Amino acid sequence: MSQWGFYFDPDKCIGCHACSQACTVRNDIDEGDVTWRRVEHVGEGTFPDYEEISISMGCYHCAEPECRDVCPTHALEKRAEDGIVTIEQDRCIGCNYCSYACPYGAIQFGEDGLAQKCHGCLGSGAGDGHGSPPREESETARETPACVDNCVTGALDSGPINELLRGASTAAAEEFRSDDSGPAVVLEPATGTEGVSGDDG
Amino acid sequence: MDEDERSKVRRRTFLKGAAGALSVAAAGCVDRDSGAVAHAEAAHETAYNNCWICRASCGQEVTLEDGTAVDLTGVEGHPKASAGPGAEGTLCSKGLAQLDKTYNPNRITRPYIREDGELRSAEWDEAIAYAAERLESFREEHGPEKLLRYQGYPIGGEFHDLLFRDLYGAPIQVGRKTTCHGPFSDSWEWMAGYGREWPDWRNSEYMIAWGRNPMECFRGQWEPKGIMETIEENDATLVCIDPRYTKTAEVADRWIPIEPRTDGALALAMGHVIIEEGLHDEEFIEEWTYGFDAYREAVADKTPEWAAGITDVDAETIREVAIGFAEAAPRAVAFPFTGLSFQGNGFKNCQNVHALNGLVGNIDRKGGTRHWRAGFSLADPFEERGIDVPANHEGRPTPDYDDYPYQRHIRDLSHNAVPTAVERGDIRGFVNNWSAPLKSGNSEAWADALEAMDLVITVDAFWSGVSRRADVVFPGASTLEQPFLATGGDSAYSESGWVTASDALIEPVGDCRTDYEIYSALATELGWGEYFPWEDAVEFYDEQLSGIGRSFEDIAERSYEIVADVKYEQWREHGFDTETGKFQFDLDVVDGYAALAEETDVSTAPEWHPPDDDLYGETTDEEYPLLLTDGFVQQLSRGHCQALDDAREEYLDRFGFRYEGYDGNLLHINPSDADPRGIETGDRVRVESPDGHVELVAHVYEGVRPGWLFAVSGFGAYSLAPDEAGANMMTMNTERHVEPVSGQVDRNLPVEVSRVGGETA
Predict the structure, then answer these.
(1) pLDDT of the residue at B40
(2) Residues with Cβ < 8 Å from B631, sequence gap 6 or more?
(3) Taking every pair of C-alpha atoms in chain B, what is the biggest distance, in angstroms?
C-alpha cells in the first residue's frame, strides 16, 4: 500500500481559510457547524511582541487510526489501497466513540447524528468515500483534494507520502519518520516572525 | 422570513426545491443515501467564469452538475488568479463562498416596485414601465442633473453609464475616490500622473505594506502569491506597518504596529535617513523629478528620533527599514492603501509615502511600483455601428459647494456631502448598481436622505438599507449568470496586458436578469432603444474584441489571453502625465491643490499633518479615549459577503466564534484597554462616540494596538447581514468626518467602550 497523506508548511500558510471553504463547497457540507477542514489561529505573546501562526487541520488518515480501533460497529476503515480512512455510514450508530478517540477533532456529526469527515475528496459530493476506488484509479476523485487545489500559497499538498517526503525539508522528513505510525501528514517546522518591533528600542 | 427559512439552503437542496426551473433528472446526489454512485451518474462539466465577489475578476473554473454550479477553483496561468504562466490558479475564501451568493435563499429574485408606500413584487414589464415613467416625471419636475449615479459592483457598468449619464443626462456620481482611496489615488495622480499605481510584487526585493494588507485584501490572487514567491525565491523582505496584527504581519519579516495616523511622520524620517545615507537615486531625481529641493528641505530636520516620539517606532527600526528599502531599490516598494486613505490626515500621509518611491527611483520599474496598462485598446462598438452617442450630461448645472474645500477640485460629489446636497435640493434622486452607501460613510444622514429623495432605483441581490428604501428594485444577475469582459492591467504578468472573458454558465436564478437586459429594456421604454442595438452583452463584447482581432467566444473558451507587451519605465518614452512631465515631490504646480494649500496654510511639498480636531481628523480625549477604525479581513469583501453564511462562518471561525450563535462583527480590543473596563472576550459591548453608539461583541487579544480598536465593516444597521447583526460603525460617522483634500470619508473615530452585560449567545 502506498499511504496517501497531506503536507503542510505553516510558514507558507497565510491563514486565509480558502482550504476550509473549498472543502465545504466541493463536498457540499450543508450544516454550518460541520467542518471537515478548519484553520486554527494561535496567538502568543504580549503586544507588541505578539505573533500568530495559522494551522490548517483535517483528518490525517493515521497509520494506526484510533477512531477505527474504538468503533464498535467497524464503520471506520483504513483502506488497504491508499491508507485513506473512510466511514461506512450505514454501519455508524452515532455513538461518538471515534470523535472522543481522535486527537485532532477531525470527526464531525451532522444533524443525522452520523460520523463524517475528510475522505481526501475521493468523491466530490457529500458522500463518505467508503467503497470508492483507490485514488489513482477513481474517476470521481479529483487529482488533488479541494483544500490543496485552492491553497493560495502552496502551504498544503497531498499525495503518496513517499512523494511528499521527497519534497519536504530534512527536518520535516525526519520528524515524520520518527513517528510513522501516527498521522499521515508531513509537517514543516514553524519558524514564525522575527524582529517584532515597537517601542522596545 | 423566519429563522428556519433563513437557515442554510445548500445548492443541491436548492436545486431540489427549484421545481421545474432546472433539469434535475440525474441529480440523485440530493439524496445522501445514494452516496458516491449518484455522483458518478450526474453529468459533470467544467467551464470558465470570472469571480466578481471583490471585483478582482480572478478567472475561475466552475464545475457544473446538471446545470447547477457545484464547485469552483482558479484558472491555471490566469493573470489575476495565479502567479503567472503555468502556475496553478486558486480562489480566495470569499471567492469560493460565492455559490452561496448565487443560490442564497435571501437573494432578491424578482423585481419590486413601491405602491402606496410599500414595496411589492412585480413582473418585469410592469417594473420597467414603472421605472421609466418615474424617471420621466422626475426629469420634468427636477431635471436630470438632480439624479445621482452610484455604482458598486456593476458587471455592466458601461450600460449603466450609457443610460443614466450619456442619455438621461445625470452628470454627478459618487465615485470610489471618496469612499475608498481618494487620499492615496489623488496624491499619486498629482505626483506621478497615474492614480492607482500598484506594486510589481513578484519582482520586488523589499516590500513595505503600509496600512495595507495584501495577504487578506487584494486585487486578485496574484498579489499574495507574488509576495510569497519573491520571499521564497528572492529572499525578499516584507515589512508590515499596521496597528493590527494582520495575516500580512504574520508572514512579514517585521511588524511595525505604528501609532495610528502618524504614518506621514515615519515616511519623512525615512526620507531623512535615505538622503543622509546618500541612498537616493540621484540620476532619477535630477532628470525625472520636480520639487526635490522642497522635499529635501521638508525632511532636513525630520530625524528618526523626531519621528520616534510621534510614531512610537524606535529610531533604529526607522533607520533599518529606510536603509533596507533604499538599498533594495529600485526593486523596492512602499505601498499604502486604506489604512492611510481612511485617515483624516491621509492625503499628506500618502504624499509623504509616495515621495519615498520617487526618492529611490522605483517608479514603474521592475520590482517597484508599476504604471499598469493593458497596452491595447478594444474597438468602440458604437463607432463600429455609426451610432453617435449624445453626451446629455455635459453642460448640466451642478452644485457649486465653495463651503466644502474638496468640492472645488474633485470631479463629483463627496459621499459625505450627499445628504446636504439632498437637503439643499441639489440632489433629488438616486440610481444605484450593487453598491452599499449606507456602510460607506455618514449612514444615518444618508438613510434620511434616501427617504427624502423623490426617486430611488437600485439593481441589487440582497435587501439592505438602500434596497428597502428604493422605489424600484431590479434583481441583478451574478457573473455566473451573465457574460463578462475585463482588460488590464495589474496582474501576475508584469510586462503584459491581458483580456479575460466568460459567458453565462447557468440560467439566472428566479427572475434575475443581466445588466444589459435591465438597462436596454429601460432605455427602450424611455425611447433610447437605438443606443442598445445589440442582442445581448455577448454581441457588444464581441464587437469590442474585434479591435484586437478576437471574438468573445475565443476568449471565453480559454478564460484569458495575454495580448500586448507593456515595458517598464514608460516615462522614458512619454514623460510623466503631470504638469511638469516629471514626478512631482512638490505639488505647487497643481493649481487646485496649490489654492487649497494656500488657503489652509500648508506646504505643497511633503509635510507632517497631525490629527488636529480641525482639518485633519479628530483626536481622542478623556471622554472618548480610544480610537476606532473599521476595515476588512480576508473572509469578507466590501461587497455582499456579509449576507453569505459560508463567508460569515469562516470569518467568525477565525476568531473562535463559529459556534457562539452570533452572526455579527467583532470589536477587537487589547487586554490593556479591556481589563480596566471589565470586558472579556464574548461580552456584548457598547461603543459610544460623540455622534452615536453601537453594540457588538468583544474579542480581546494582543493583536491590536493598545488605545486602538478595530472592527470589520459592513455589518449592523442598514447592512445586508441577516437581521442586521453586529454593528455598523458608520452610523457614528457624520458629514464632518472627511479628509479635507480628497473628500474621502474619514473612518477614524474617537470612542469609549463599556460592557453592557450578557454573553454572546
Answers:
(1) 45
(2) B244, B338, B339, B342, B710, B712, B713, B747
(3) 76
CA B760 from chain centre, in angstroms, equals 30
Q: Which residue in B8, B253, B670 is closest to A47 by CB distance?
A: B670
Phi, psi (5° rounding) for residue A74? Answer: 55, 40
Whether B40 and chain A come into contact, CB under 8 Å, resolves to yes
Alpha-carbon gap, residue B700 to B170, rounded angstroms: 48
For residue B397, is the peptide bond before it cis, meaning its omega torsion is within 30 degrees of 0?
no
Closest CA to B551 of B483, B481, B505, B477: B483
Task: Decide the pairing of beta strands B455-460 and B429-433.
Answer: parallel
In one letter, which amino acid is B695?
E
First to last CA, chain A: 56
Query: Domain tally for chain A?
Result: 1
Radius of gyration of chain A (CA): 18
The pLDDT, as a whole number, for residue B151 is 84
B contact residues 60-99, partner A, Cβ 8 Å cutoff? 63, 70-74, 88, 90-93, 96-97, 99
Quickly state the pLDDT bin for A20 (edges 50, 70, 90).
very high
Do B703 and A47 form a contact (C-beta atoms < 8 A)? yes
What pLDDT score was predicted for residue B176?
A: 86
A192 part of a folded domain? no
Q: CB of A10 within 8 A of CB of A53?
A: yes
Beta strands in B75-185 (DSSP E): 112-115, 118-121, 147-151, 173-174
Q: In whole angstroms, what is the distance from residue B453 CA to residue B449 CA? A: 6
Dist. CA B172–CA B390, nearest whole Å: 16
How distant, in Å, are the alpha carbons of B219, B435, B653, B727 from that of B646? 21, 21, 10, 19
ipTM > 0.95, yes or no: no
pLDDT at B128 over 70: yes
For residue B16, is pLDDT > 50? no
pLDDT at B293 over 90: yes
Look-up of cell digits 464587437: B543
Element at A48 (helix H, strand E): none
Nearest-angstrom CA–CA distance, B135 and B137:
6
Q: What is the pLDDT of residue B38?
A: 38
Q: Which helix (H) or strand (E) holds B684?
A: strand B684-689
Per-residue pLDDT tens digits for B180-233:
999 999 999 999 999 889 999 999 999 999 999 999 999 999 999 999 999 999
A64: domain CATH number is 3.30.70.20
Diameter of chain A measured on Cα atoms:
63
Residue A39's domain comprises 4-187
Top residue of A197, A199, A200 to mutate, by most chain B CBs within 10 Å, is A197
Q: What is the pLDDT of residues A83-121, one digit of tens each?
A: 999 999 899 999 999 999 999 999 999 888 999 999 998
**Chain B residues touching A126 at Cβ < 8 A:** 12, 29, 32
Residue A201 forms part of a structural domain: no
Q: Specify if A159 maps to a domain.
A: yes
Q: Which residues contact A54 (CB under 8 A, 6 or more apart)?
A: A10, A13, A14, A15, A39, A40, A41, A42, B247, B250
| Residue-wise pLDDT tens digits, B295-348 | 999 999 999 999 999 999 999 999 999 999 999 999 999 999 999 999 999 999
Determine, yes or no, domain membership for A60.
yes
**pLDDT tens column, B220-267:** 999 999 999 999 999 999 999 999 999 999 999 999 999 999 999 999
Q: Is B39 within 8 Å of A125 when comparing Cβ atoms?
A: yes
Residue A179 contacts B where some CB pair is shorter than 8 Å: no
Q: Write out pLDDT tens, residues B354-384.
A: 999 999 999 999 999 999 999 999 999 999 9
Distance separating the N- and C-terminal Cα atoms of chain B:
21
